[in-house]
Amino acid sequence: MNLGKKKSLAARTFNVGESRIEFVKPRLEEIKEAITKQDIRDLHKDGAIRIKPIKGRKKQVGNTRKKTTGNVRKKVNKRKKEYVAITRKLRRYLNEIRSKLTDQEKEDIRKKIRNRFFKSKSHLKDYIGGIRK
Fold first, then answer.
1. Segment-wise mean pLDDT, segments of 10 residues, the chain, 133 residues
2. Per the confidence metrics, is the pTM higher than 0.85?
């Protein structure tokens, strides 16, 4: 007698794999007559259907990796937005003070802005103050 459908019904009922469901041989006639999930639950309670324990490595508790500060990754899109915002701000400021700098200095600072050398506008101001001395 083929009890594959009953086995899959039992697996769905108890949220386990079909390989873990075991039918007791002398009570196969009762299992054959079970139609609903409730019938399956009752048969399990009576002992006609057994669920085998988990075997192998799945039984061991996995070593979950903690999300510490070193593992947190910013979203790429957010990094790009920050880059665009700071670059525009610094280039705008550089345009405001362009009369105070030589062409060579302006070109050098623009390259440094593009390469994210400056972290903020105040950092750029400090750098320019150091050049002008």
1. 87 92 90 91 92 77 71 78 94 92 93 94 91 70
2. no
